[in-house]
Amino acid sequence: MNEGGLVLLAILLTSLIPGLVIFFLAETSVRLRTAINLAGALLKLLLLLWVMYRVGQGDIYELRWPFLPGIDLVLRADYLAVFFGTLSAVLWLLTTLYAVGYLEGSPHRSRFFGFFSLCVFSTTGIALAGNLPTFFVFYELLTLTTYPLVVHRGTAEAFRAGRVYLVYTLGGGVVLLLGVVWLTVLAGPADFAHPAGLEAVYAQQPITLALMFALLVAGLGVKAALFPLHGWLPVAMVAPAPVSALLHAVAVVKAGAFGVVRVVYDVFGVDLLDRLELGLPLALWAAVTILYGSLMALRQDDLKRRLAYSTVSQVSYIVLGVALLGPLATAGGLVHLVHQGLMKITLFLCAGNFSEVLSVKKVSQMAGIGQRMPWSMAAFSLAALGMVGLPPLVGFYSKWYLGLGALESSYPAFVLVLLASSLLNAAYFLPILYTAWFVAPRADVPRPSQSGGETSWMLLLPPLATSLLVLGMGLLADAPFSPLVWARRFAQGEYDP
Amino acid sequence: MSELPWIVWAVLIPLAGAVLAFLWPAQGARVALLVWLGTGVAVLGLSLQLIQSGVQRYAVGGWHPPLGISLHADGLSTLMLLLTALVFGPIMLYALAYFKNPAHPFWALSLFLWTALNALFVSGDVFNVYVSLELLGLSAVALTALGGQARALVAAYRYLLASLLGSLVYLLGVGLLYAEYATLDLQTLGRVISLDPASAVALALMTTGLLLKTALFPLHFWLPPAHASATAPVSALLSGLVVKGSLYLLLRLWLEVFPTEATSGLLLGLLGAGAVFWGSLYALRARELKPLIAYSTVAQLGYPFLAFPMLGAGGEVVVVYFVLSHAFAKAAMFLAAGSVLLAFGHDRLSELRGLLQSLPLSVAAFALAGTSLMGLPPSGGFVAKWLLLQASIAAGQWLWAVVALLGGLLSAGYVFRILTRAIADPKQPAQPKAAFPMVELVALALAIVSVLLGFLALPVLRLLEVGR
Amino acid sequence: MSTLLYLLAGVGLVAMGLHALFVHTHLLRQVLALNILSTGVFLLFIAWGSRSPADHADPVAQALVLTGIVVAVSATALALALAVRIKQTTGKSSLSDEADV
Q1: Which residues of A touch B423 (CB under 8 A)?
Q2: Is A70 exposed, middle or buried (0-12, 13-18, 19+ CB in 10 A)?
């Protein structure tokens, strides 16, 4: 085992070991638990930054374990892996801090944080997976480890949501598995780094190849919440706020979207998909989901449900960018993986604060909330404006590159989808901002009780930090190591080798 | 060391232990643990011999077949011997804490059971196989009856009838084969056999008899009551190992003895599919933990048969991996169910809310073993399912892949029936009668092995290839 | 000729045993049915053994039957012991339709 492989293993262990240890801690040992959690999260982040630096220098980090004859389980840090891995590490750190504050005094915290860490373990594995079998292993592990978080509240409603979640995700897993094994049988096992000889299959049975692509994308589409496979996402909103935040920003939906990215670039390859003419159907599917999600979001009064449908719509931006099969659209879609994560996690954490402090759960109750909780609302506003696409916030860059990519592609009409969706984004976010800031507070909404601040610092710091990133990464979009630069570099690598 | 006939010791040590424990019941537990040690060494020695010098043969007392008894161990036999030793040990530790009685008849009977299993795995001829099968059936029935209540006695009696009927039908087939080919040796038979009507009838009879003993749908009627009403360590032995004995034999016969044109296996595959659906549906409806797990066994026994149509084309590996992972996972589940019974005196699913707080290690065992039963990664069950999908796609027989995938979803249904109740908050927290760390840890250890099997496919498959 | 007689008798016993096993619910009758069934199987073995070309009967078949009888006796003993325990515990001596599990 080489040194690089050990580093990758260590990155996985920084969340696996805390997760397992925390299960055995007593409910009351809050400090120890928090310390283990944060230490693991920080260590993981540092290791990932180191790997990111070294991969930027051209080093190869790889770890293999023989799984079946001819098939290895592979971890490998390439551009995409580091990109997604770092995102999850940063957001995990912040969400952990938030969750510690959010769940203060509530029951079953050891269980919660144990599975929380295991969930990040799975997400990191998804990021670092070096071939489809490995990806699948972590993808299914993610289903199993998020289930206890979804039903964490233990109410009948939570268990109903959990059942819906399982039916969708396990069903998707079955379809994905069929696709993965079929591909392995036909084309042999292949790493993402060295895509398989699908050319031979293409020459003989192009229809089969298209069918396999459909199976893979449909299986991944469940977690990526592509319409009509998104049914679990709004229901899963019963989970505690930090879980919703993580589910929407990095863990589950992104695992699906990231899988689509892998399948398009590292399994089939742009060239082959172009010849199979599969880009357009996928792009159309994404476009339908974008519009559907936005329209549904417009109709929700429940804040978390509105955000959930917004996720349905926004994650499909990533799929659309990938499906347009051009360098600019790729950069836009890929960078949206990070940008959407930052914005959506801010929105969910703030929504959690509103419901926690003021018991405000519906948009119609948000009148004047900006005066009651100015910091949370400021963060919320920044993220919401980013979602709409206001420059210089990060959302603008995603949409800009996606738009350019659409114009440059064979199907410039998709730029209309982007425009329509942006209008819809504005239509469902701006009224919230208006009511929150400019309408007088309702008498029945209580004032926050603390004299010091609107709520505890642990609940406030994470959304403020992510909202600053929404602004900062927008301002520094061209700086080295900014997500946009990485996404562009990846896209260049894919399109002009 | 390497000249010792370990293959003989693998049968003799448990036999001697069984007789000893029978004559001297007060020392039963001690004898059993010594047997575990001794047999473990013998099986390891045999494995080393196998790896170094290939297939092992031994003619007992220098008498050669047909009158003498010849022993024969290839990779498949050795793997089954290893599996048996690995599952038996933890179950014995569990039984020590469960019965709290070193003089319990469990010890002698379970050692007879072990003797029968090991004899079966190293038997080289079809008649010795019959004798081993009978010893296996009789000791399994006696163990089932140890439960003592009316339910267990009736279940044991039915089990006995089914088992004897199965053996006699098998024996009838053996007689027909002997009448025609005048040999009982498995390998010789495999060389000379041809597909004439008499042989075809013989094969059908032998297969039917063994299917009855393996409890493949629709011949499974005797299994759920027997496995559900036996005491927990016995249920673990029955579901984990005993049904695998006749399954092993079916695999060997179909793979090595029966002519290939007779063995398209389509019917067995269809019955396997029936088992997967039937067993799962009943497991989804069960009201108590142990019946749920017993019906899950009915369902899980269907999966290896899905691979019978692909024997010779990768199917045999699938069968073996399902057998391995199910043995560990199911033993773990029955033992964990036993912990629940010990702690609360009942295993009604409706009253298991809050189990996670009272017996966290047992719930972990259910979860990990359940992962393997569902065929989700990383686990032995996942490897088995992957191999099955791979074999059936490569052979163009999609039906089996689809059945296995749907069956996985159904098993998720019944596994999560346990888990959701376990993590729900109880209305009134139930207090366990006492703490059973040893008992719970053993079940957890077996469950962990069923998960680790997901990473050990290569060495297992390599061992399996010896003599093939 | 006598071989055919044995064969027919064997087949007849097997058929009777099977029939009785499925029809009767009384514990003792079921044990008897199994015994008749196994006797039929043994008789068939003897009949097949005598078909071997030599003028004497095949010793292997006889040895097999001997072993088979020993096994059958122990199985019968276990079955009877169980039947007695069932009668003692439940007061019933036949298996009527109990609900499964």
Answers
A1: 111, 148, 151, 154
A2: exposed
